[in-house]
Amino acid sequence: MAALDSDDEILQDFLVEAEEILEGLNEQLVELETKPQDSELLNSIFRGFHTIKGGAGFLSLDAMVGLCHKCEDLFNLLRQGDKVVDAEMMDTFLKVLDILNTMFDETKAGQFPTPADPEILNQLGVYLEDDAAAAEPEPTPEPEPVVAPPSAAANGEDITDDEFEALLDQLHGNGVPGVVEPETAEPTPAKPAKSDNDDISEEEFEALLDELQGKKPAAKPEVAAEPTPEAKIEPKVEATPPAKKPAEAKPEPAAKPAAAAKPAETTVRVDTSRLDDIMNMVGELVLVRNRISTLEAAFEDEEMAKAVNNLAVVTGDLQTAVMKTRMQPIKKVFGRFPRVVRDLARSLKKDINLELRGEDTDLDKNLVEALADPLVHLVRNAVDHGVEMPDVREAAGKDRQGQVILGAAQEGDHILLTISDDGAGMDADVLRSKAVEKGMMDEESASRLTDSEAYALIFAPGFSMKAEISDISGRGVGMDVVKTSISKLNGVIDIKSEVGVGTTLSIKVPLTLAIMPTLMVMLGDQIFAFPLVSVNEIFHLDLDKTNIVDGQQTIMVRNKTLPLFYLRKWLASTFNDNGEPRIEHVVIVNVGTQRVGFVVDQLIGQEEVVIKPLGALLQGTKGLAGATITGDGRISLILDFPELMATYAHRGY
Amino acid sequence: MSVRVLIVDDSGFFRRRLSTIISSDPQITVVGTANNGQEAIEQVKLLKPDVITMDIEMPVMDGITATRKIMAQSPTPILMLSTWTTEGAKSTLDALDAGAVDYMPKRFEDISSDQTIAHQQLCQRLHSLAKNSKAPQPHLESIRIVKPPVQIPSPRVTSHSMPKPLSIVVIGTSTGGPVALQKVLTQLPANFPYPILLVQHMPATFTPSFAERLNTQCNIKIKHAENGDKLSPGTAYLAPGGMQMLLKGHARQAFIEIQASRESQTYKPCIDITFDSVAKIHPKETLAIILTGMGSDGKKSCQKLHELGSTIWAQDEKSSTIYGMPMAIAKAGFADGIFDLNDIARHLVELK
After folding, report:
1. Alpha-carbon separation of residue A73 from A18, A100, A127, A232, B242 (angstroms)
2. Is A157 within 8 Å of B11 when comparing Cβ atoms?
């Protein structure tokens, strides 16, 4: 098979652009279904195919050129109003898009794309010919592009001798050659996506951790049926002037004097691994800053304090700036949903409108990738389980068309993602009885579940609400994975639902995975770090006020019963049961959808830490997300609560 | 002084490729790039480039509108980079109408299968556009309004420059030709007494659209020439792109023969080939006109026609977009008349 040089800079450049366009087309085509006459949209789709064709032509990717060319012609008719899109044509276009995506992947893998199935080309040809027959009086069957003769000048002009002389003179003249440097886009080695089951395995989790450090390529949590080699996408780093908003999505076409003065491109493409390196180094710097701050406290020197403060400010700014370079709009993930929802709704014969909100919200590139899969599960779930059939909706006095809203917003150092539907909602009682039926808990514990705890049951492994299992969702596998993946990202899930009104799922994840705000605590003589995003509240507790329920020690916090665990029993090596003080520090932590209280020995305070992978000896230790170096130079282990709970909680401490 | 180029294209990929190719010529500097027509207009004002390469399909503002606005505000030679399809032909001709000087295919393979040659040609073209073309005439309509037809014959017109007994008019042109032809042919009356053969260097996908377009604009009939067409007065026959158009038969009843062009032929259609064939049929009664264009196609055949006693006109330097082909005729001294484009039309109308 003919191979392309996948390291080729030009090819990489094309792939980056083509991917952006393909993502855009995906969205636009779905949008077209609702707005078939929107000329702006038709124009933009036309240009999409046109641009891909141009680039593919440059690289002689003939299969791609052929397919894009047909689409371009057809959209040209559409945008001129000579034709109107119908549902059948829509299906063809979406098929074309799938084929183009396959071709894109082939190209990415260094192969020349396989020519499209002639059937689809014929189909496009039929649409084109229909029109040609109707509109063109001449019997020319189709405006087949005539391949220009290969000779030097189809339209070429000679230059006269004099002109040639002049040219030669110019060449030997003294003009300073102005060379515009082409941007260097460093090719990233292809890496295989190596997961073959729906769950995230330990290796993958470790790989994810490593990826946080930018050391090793990681398997994306995305599920790939077969191990397709995949090249990493380089995000575009906008070198925006400081005055501009950093998260500017669309370059304003109007007045750009700064850019005009420097005519060269204002963006450069940087390999993500380089960004990871920088982030890693900034992380180290943060650790050093923490260390110096701690040391400084012992000096009581004002000058020193000033300098240290300065260092802290600059480090903070640097950290923010570097983080921003790694930011990508969540649009990258959201973009695929219109298509997902459309296809699903069609196959389920439901009528659903998807609304995207806050697409321009930026978050860390790694997070964008890691969130993709869980979100697909949740959106599918909303479409499949949430929204009712049109007839049912009508009977309930609702609009036949269901609404699914996918939103993203930044809240401080967190990103809040919401998936809400105006469907049937969930009945907490039904969930409770289902849990009993499945033998997950007895009736009594089930009845004690709060509504939101009951909703959280949908994340339990093997819990499915559907009587019959569809191939779309409802196997009770997906949601379990969602919870695990979100927890791995230090995310928290919250569910609100009302019967007959709808369900809203909120996911809170930190902005970045590389630097994590933590709460430092002491257990015995060891320091542990709690991811701050999970920490709900801290209070002192008189241990006499605890109760034992079902053999589990619990506390009442504002009329809610929470399980209480002694972390030192799980983690501290020098655990001494004697002489327990009667007043203890309790940290309430969110674990997935649950809240749990942990008793700790001492509270140290908040600290921003950089997650370091555990050394080989500790690799795979359950309940530990990694390690970090604290301000006083000691090593602290960062806890992974979901795993910690899964490993220790059932032991009945 | 190196040539300063502004690249306008909505594809970043294409902008970078073009920059790389163009910058490989040490005598050309890419001074800026623009993502769309709107940006292009601003960049032109700020950077004052010598030449602009312009894409057609762009968001915000397309290349044709941008060309029109640039030519109105700060006239600059514009090279359209277009797709050489039938659709592309239409928009390219629109762009030429809007004031673009020249066009090249966006797919460089359409220029030459050899990439290096294609790239060189692109650079050469930019050089000659920057060097030769003065601010090209903007829109046709606007010209007509601004410039009322000149009444006084230009001093160069001498009686001997007017052809004696005449049977046929042949016109050859290249860069800048579509607009020039349009300007001349639209002024001819429907009862123009002679047949006209038109040879415009143009790719095969363009000539049918071009003929159709001229036909709707002109009073005389314009036909995309076909094999076997018998010449009739008041009709202009446009040589099909990619082929060669020859005149066959005899002086009383001449007809057109379209031949496939050979690899070795640089121009398809070639002015010399058509004019030579005309010289065999009407050695003395031909009026051959060479309009704007790069290179020197037509020079040899005009020499022959001149020697045989036919009349040769050439467009003057001032009104030529590219004073190459007309200059070759003028310098060699074959020209019986060297006229401004407006005068060429006027003198044609005066022909009896």
Report:
1. 19, 16, 10, 32, 23
2. no
Which token pair is B142?
Answer: 């606007």
Q: Is the model's pTM score more than 0.90?
A: no
Chain segment A159-196, per-residue pLDDT in tens: 455 555 555 555 554 444 444 444 444 444 444 444 44
Give bridge partners of residue B28 from the DSSP assignment: B3
- Facing residue for B59 by CB, picked from A47, A57, A58: A47
C-alpha span between B219 and B188 (Å, rounded):
7
Residue B162 falls within a domain, yes or no? yes
Beta-carbon-side half-sphere exposure of residue A185 (alpha carbons within 13 Å) = 23
CA gap B125, B175 in Å, rounded: 10
Per DSSP, A386 falls in state I
Q: What does the alpha-carbon distance between residue A390 and residue A514 come to, in Å, rounded to a whole number?
A: 45
For B299-345, what is each residue's pLDDT tens digit? 999 999 999 989 999 999 888 888 889 999 999 888 888 999 988 98
A148 contacts B203? CB cut-off 8 A: yes
Angle (CA) B8-B14-B19 rounded to 5° is 75
Characterize A285-314 residue by residue with b for buried, 16 or more Cβ atoms within 10 angstroms of its Cβ, and e for exposed: bbbebbebbeebeeeeeeeeeeebeebbee
Which two tokens mark B259? Answer: 């031949």
Indicate the burial class of A649 (C-beta count within 10 angstroms; 0-12, 13-18, 19 or more).
Answer: middle
For the annotated catalytic residues of B, the residue numbers are 174, 201, 297
Answer whether residue B152 is part of any domain.
no
Q: Which domain holds residue B91?
A: 3-134
What digits encode the pLDDT tens for the residues A227-263? 444 444 444 444 444 444 444 444 444 444 444 444 4
Q: Best interface-test mutation with B: which of A16, A60, A79, A158 has the largest number of B CBs within 10 A?
A: A158
Q: Residue B66: give its domain's CATH number.
A: 3.40.50.2300
**Percent of chain A, pLDDT > 70?**
72
A57·B106 Cβ contact <8 A: yes
If one counts the domains in chain B, the total is: 2
Task: Enumerate domains of chain A plus CATH numbers.
Answer: 9-135 (1.20.120.160), 329-510 (3.30.565.10), 515-651 (2.40.50.180)
Q: What does the pLDDT average to over A21-45?
A: 83
DSSP at A578: T
Judging contacts by C-beta atoms under 8 Å, the chain A residues touching residue B59 are 43-44, 47
Angstroms from A148 CA to nearest CA on chain B = 6
From residue B348, give the alpha-carbon distance in Å to each of A46, B183, B233, B314: 44, 12, 13, 13
Nearest CA in chain A to B25: A177
Q: Which uninterrupted H or E stretch holds B29?
A: strand B28-34
Please indicate, yes or no, if residue B143 is contained in any of the structural domains. no
Q: What is the DSSP letter of B199?
A: E
Tokens of A646: 């899964």
Q: Closest chain A residue to B11 measured between Cα atoms?
A: A51
Residue A442 CB coordination number (10 Å): 11
CA atoms of A52 and A47, how far apart (whole Å): 8
> Are the C-beta atoms of residues B123 and B28 closer than 8 Å to each other?
yes
Q: Do residues B329 and B272 both lie within one domain?
A: yes
CA dihedral A497, A501, A505, A511 (to 10 degrees): -130
d(CA A177, CA A180): 9
Contact between residue A195 and residue A219 where contact means Cβ atoms under 8 Å apart: yes
Q: Where are the alpha helices (DSSP H) in A491-595?
A: 567-571
Number of neighbouring beta carbons within 10 Å of residue A454: 23
Q: Please indicate whether, in this complex, the C-beta atoms of A159 and B324 are within 8 angstroms of each other.
A: yes
Least CB–CB distance from B324: residue in A14, A143, A160: A160
A533: DSSP letter: G
- pLDDT reading at A302 higher than 80: yes
* More confidently predicted of B279 and A446: B279
Shortest CA gap A389–chain B (Å): 40
The encoded tokens of residue A396 equal: 């309930």
